[in-house]
Write a structure and sequence with these properties.
About 45% of the residues lie in helices and about 15% in strands. The chain is of the alpha/beta class. The structure holds pyridoxal-5'-phosphate.
Length: about 375
């Protein structure tokens, strides 16, 4: 059976932010599954608290230096994101980056929330625009931001930008929802502090909501994401979770906890970095074959890079033509709430092998060159 997230045979996919199955620590997860059932099954196979498996909440809380009561472990972080949106943004407005994670745009549309945008580029976030929005009459309910290995661009906000963003939010009492599913998947470079930590440093942790996930760093099939909430939001969000799914599946949470508590995460992250580095580097090297007006980001981690197509080529039209040469990718337009930059594309390097990346990127580069030649001849 072929799952819809997987590319058709022969097609090389740069489309979805899916890990390669070769990234899963299968042996250890098998042992942890056994341990979860045999040692903890009486709890983990039952209904439980809506906020998740207590030992996992405690592990996450210790990592973030917060109380376990502030941690809501959700069945994937997308559910957590939707809970935040439904609770805080329904019928109001939210500010998002342009471009941003497309499923956040869907969540906001489902909640009838108006969307305001703050441009995000290689240079970072447009902080002047953020300050204008935050001080305006129709101030958004929150700012949704992906500071590290941003989906879709792969870029990371530097410390100066992070501090400036936090200062603006504090000045205008703006809640900031930081989504960080990729931050632990670092290939190189220096880690930056979470916005959540900077808010705490400034004495305003009440303005910070943090979301992360073990989907990208361990395995998405565990469906384990989490929110770190300000104490004032815990009751409301926990109630929303309880209404939606009673309690999350505790068994994978117990399995994950066994993995984390044994100290397996850090060595696994080192393995992931070594796995992803040649893939990212192969893609970056192949893109050097593009015409000189193409530009692309050079992510220090995560799963994606962002391509500004040469000659103003339309990303959606290119994606359609790419299928015929056996390559898929995500056109950039879908990551914008409004006024899409159409000559853009998101390329994921997490799923294909190095050889597939080389072959797929060569197909894509050739196709782009052909499109530019075709267009010149049509003129
Ligand atoms: C930015 C971002 N947030 C949240 C998610 C949701 O991840 P999950 O529900 O698997 O934890 C993803 C997955 O692609 C993502 O890219």
């Amino acid at each position: 059976m072929t799952l819809s997230v997987l590319p058709a045979a022969g097609t090389i996919s740069f489309a979805r932010g899916v890990p390669s199955p070769d990234m899963f620590p299968l042996e250890r997860l098998a042992e942890c599954a056994r341990q979860a059932v045999l040692d903890h099954g009486r709890v983990a196979l039952n209904y439980g608290a809506p906020a998740g498996y207590e030992p996992l909440r405690e592990w996450i809380a210790a990592r973030h230096g917060v109380a376990a009561s502030q941690v809501l472990v959700t069945p994937g972080s997308l559910i957590g994101l939707n809970l935040v949106v439904r609770t805080l943004c329904a019928g109001r407005s939210a500010a998002v980056e342009a471009p941003t994670y497309d499923r956040m745009l869907h969540a906001l549309a489902d909640a009838n929330a108006a969307v305001l945008t703050v441009p995000r580029s290689g240079a970072g976030l447009d902080l002047d625009r953020l300050a204008t929005l935050a001080s305006g009459a129709d101030r958004p309910a929150l700012l949704y931001v992906l500071p590290t290995f941003h989906n879709p661009t792969g870029t990371t906000l530097d410390l100066e930008q992070r501090r400036a963003l936090v200062a603006i939010a504090i000045e205008h009492d703006l809640t900031v929802f930081e989504d960080d599913p990729y931050g632990l998947v670092r290939i190189d470079g220096t880690p930056q502090p979470y916005l959540h930590d900077l808010f705490r440093e400034q004495g305003r942790p009440d303005l910070a909501i943090f979301a992360s996930s073990f989907s990208k760093s361990v395995a998405p099939g565990l469906r384990a994401g989490y929110l770190v909430l300000p104490p004032g939001l815990v009751a409301q969000l926990t109630e929303a979770a309880s209404r939606l799914y009673v309690s999350p599946p505790l068994l994978p949470q117990a399995q994950l906890h066994a993995f984390l508590a044994a100290g397996d995460l850090e060595p696994h992250l080192t393995t992931l970095a070594a796995f992803l580095k040649p893939r990212r580097d192969a893609l970056l090297a192949a893109l050097e074959g593009l015409p000189p007006d193409a530009t692309w980001t050079r992510p220090e981690g995560g799963y994606f890079l962002w391509l500004e197509l040469p000659g103003g080529l339309d990303g959606e039209a290119l994606a359609e033509r790419a299928v015929a040469v056996g390559v898929t990718f995500s056109a950039g337009a879908g990551f914008f709430a409004a006024e899409p930059r159409r000559a853009t594309a998101r390329l994921a390097f997490s799923y294909p092998s190095v050889a597939e990346i080389e072959a797929g990127a060569a197909r894509l580069v050739n196709l782009i060159r052909d499109c530019i030649v075709d267009r010149g001849e049509a003129r």
